[in-house]
Amino acid sequence: MQNYDLIIRNGQIVTKDSIFQGEIAVKDGKIVEVSTNTISGNTKEEIDANGLHIMPGVIDTHVHFNEPGRDHWEGLETGSKSLAAGGATAFFDMPLNSTPPVINKKTLEAKSKLGEEKAIVNPYYWGGLVPQNINDLKDLHENGVIGFKAFMSPSGIEDFDNADDETLYKGMTEIASFGSILAVHAESTVICAQLQEEKIQAGKTSARDFVESRPIISEIEAVRRVISYAEATGCKLHVVHASSKKVTDLINDAKKRGVDASVETCAHYLSLTVKDLEEKGGLAKCAPPLRDQEEVDGLWDALANDEIDIIASDHSPAPKEMKTVTDNYFEGWGGISGAQSTLNVLLTEGYHKRNFPLEKIVQVTATNPAKRFGLEGKGALETGYDADIILVDLNETFELQEEDLFYRHQHSPYVGKTFKGNVKTTIVNGKTVFHHGEIINS
Ligand SMILES: [Zn+2]
């Protein structure tokens, strides 16, 4: 007779390529059996998943928490609770929003120490690539960063400079030498700065003006340039938050030429438009900005064709007063609070509205992130994998309220939106951390 810690019974198990009725047994934080039959044995705990779908936890490759140093903004505890409530079991934290930013071993250690204390889901960290730290990159890699992040336009954080062409070229040469990966925020500094100045000079500061100051061509120009560096240096490349199929097409063309590249988009580019920016003000401000409906539809077409590797939240929150826009959309923090809602958006806008298969949702939220960034034992519901498991009710319908949010600052452009499909339980390394609307304290 086997002894287990947990058996999840009677659920619909969703993998990257199939859905079947089955059961999962967990011991010591690992999945030890997945079966279409009844699993027998002694177990400390049993969950009846009748009527629910069992999926691998979301791996959110793109969040901005602000610890250490910027403690009045989103933190590791509140941020990771929000992720758990949204069905994420791991996150990759961006390097720039802590003070100091993660650009050397010392600052990485300071952050990961806090992550160990405070995060309730699995934490991973990006290191920064900035003009000043080419000589620190290898050290960061050896100390466990998931990869590196560079901005091709100003980051909005004073002590995290954007990477000029020389930094990109030298940095990517260095990163390639030890086989790591560079993620880029790809917008053209030249185009955005000039257009912004023209708009402001002319007193044109509406939502539409802000969007027009950061056009898709600015992304296209930057992506083309960074792809050329990837080709020249052999550095693995990951383009974050592409806002248009015109951008994802470039990465797919590069892949066909043999460039080791991948592309991510975010839930907000799949569900919100310039109209939302006009209506919700700063809460929906981000960079690249929200686009029009045809771009949203284009991204869904790209997803249907397997042309987008990863969907992340780019959760980039700020205190609410910094998100208030009156009539000047060039003012106020750019960044959307969304970490809790990624799966809700994909189920509502994708699975229910566009027949986007659950298996593909698993691919872009779990399988592909684990594979691209080399997370062993993550991203699948298979024997020997870590028990990072979520239970989802596909048909639960609810209108998101501010008080549902676990963020430090309870705002999001999704507040007031009706979602269909919700996370009931989140299990991280075999332990239930979220159940029926509540965080479960260990
Ligand atoms: Zn970001």
Automatic annotation (TrEMBL):
Carboxylation allows a single lysine to coordinate two zinc ions. Its cofactor is Zn(2+). It comes from Oceanobacillus luteolus. This is Allantoinase. Residues 54-433 form the Amidohydrolase-related domain. Zn(2+) 1 binds at residues 62, 64, 149, 314. Its EC number is 3.5.2.5. It catalyses: (S)-allantoin + H2O = allantoate + H(+). It comes from the Bacteria. GO terms for molecular function: allantoinase activity. Catalyzes the conversion of allantoin (5-ureidohydantoin) to allantoic acid by hydrolytic cleavage of the five-member hydantoin ring. Keywords: Hydrolase, Metal-binding, Purine metabolism, Zinc. The modification N6-carboxylysine is found at residue 149. Pathway: Nitrogen metabolism; (S)-allantoin degradation; allantoate from (S)-allantoin: step 1/1. Coiled coil: none annotated. Belongs to the metallo-dependent hydrolases superfamily. Allantoinase family. Zn(2+) 2 binds at residues 149, 185, 241. Binds 2 Zn(2+) ions per subunit. It holds the Pfam family Amidohydro_1. NCBIfam families: allantoinase, PRK06189.1. Homotetramer.
